[in-house]
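[Amino acid chain]
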Amino acid sequence: MKKPIYFDYAATTPVDTRVVAAMRPFFVSSYGNPSSLHCFGRTARVAVEKARMVISEALGAEPEEIIFTSGGTESNNFAIKGIAFANRVRGRHIVVSTIEHECVYQSCRWLEREGFSITYLSVDGNGLVDPDALMSALRPDTVLVSIMHANNEIGTIESIEELAWICKSRGISFHTDACQSFGKIPLSVRDVPVDLITINAHKIYGPKGVGALYIRKNTPIMPWQHGGGQESGMRSSTENVPGIVGFGKATELSVQEMVEEGKRLTALRDRIISSVIHDIPGAYLNGHPTDRLPNNINVAVHGLEGEAIRLLLELDRHGIAVSTGSACSSNQENQTSHVLAAIGRDSMEARGGIRITIGRFTTNEEVTYLLKTLPEVTGSLKSISSVRLS
């Protein structure tokens, strides 16, 4: 290949040129503050509300139920801490799964220091939460359950409809982090009784630095950022108008193209999984074999898990960009994946997953090059492995 190939769409996506075109006027000509009353402000406000309408329709929600934020991390913090403190008189118990994003974990650890009790719900070998286990974990003082819609590392899609109905039957708020799934697979609050949904723009070919939190009407939640009262008093700060406009356009395009793009990506995904398992001795898949995101492949090779970073760097040298897990955790000293550990991988295996994620601009030619190069690079690492492959 003449230029590097990007196989890390779960970390972030390139901004679609159609999104850039929609955003451009709000940098240079329609630059008003949406809180201003003059024509510049009114133009900005109309653009923000149009984007809010598009995003709410994508979720089957009402526009006023969408609160814009700076991204997925802020939305998750807002949901978890906001629900916890708004309901602390009623109860101080929260349930989350053991494969949540690091920002959910860190929020929960902070809440533990503030006197809250957290139950970390185990998953099975494919990364699925057992509804019966959730039912058993609920207590009279449980105020929130947070289970992600689809995992960012292994791509497993949770049965959140069933989980949400369990919580609804007990009067417990249910939150899902849908950053990886939004725009890729359907999710409607008309069908699923979820109370809060975290989404962001840069996973769907929109800009970085903008996200949203869906909050179902009448959900008891405390604002977590105070100031001028923007976003209906739920999230104070001057709105990022270009980012919000880009988020709206990215959502519109993703919804329009979801069905056909989903079929295309699923075919490429299954081709990669099949070839890797067939062509690389000892290769295995992490995550559910079928109930997974259409763009996610997480694989490892028995005996070579300790060489995951070396494999990543060798692929990079060949012009192929993949990751070893969540980009948000890659700067931490401990490279063990808490997600792989949660699905039963041992301490070495939990260091060895290679995440290959594809997207809108991935081509058949690029996949062919990956499938030619990956076995060659993997083969070159066998001589330094401490475990003999059968």
